[in-house]
Design brief:
The strands form three sheets. This protein has a six-stranded antiparallel sheet, with no helix packed on it. Strands 4-5 form a two-stranded antiparallel ribbon. Strands 9-10 form a two-stranded antiparallel ribbon. The chain is mainly β. 0% of the residues lie in helices and 53% in strands.
Length: 119
Amino acid sequence: MAKIKKGDLVQVITGRTQAKGGDRGKQGKVLEILAEQNRVIVEGVNYITKHTRVGQTQRGTKTGGIETLEAPIHISNVALVDPETKKPTRVGHRVEEQTKDGVKRTVRVRYAKTSGKDL
């Protein structure tokens, strides 16, 4: 089970500070996980400008130009945010038994190590 999933709120814990133009301390939602590269794309973090070739659609509108988008950052440079304290925390797993319609199931649950709340 992965520690960080799509849709989680994470905080950047390494890099240049915001006072020096970096992203350390910024929080954002995980938009995508690139598991094979161990990278994540976080909303509002690590913006780059990309130049795309100018073209035309069939209607005649122009496409392309300069666009800004989020670039992936390494998964070790972000930490999950505790929903109670709004600060970065480590993630733990515990196995719980749940009964649904009279059937017992074992479910792995992620929880924040600092507060103990489920994620």
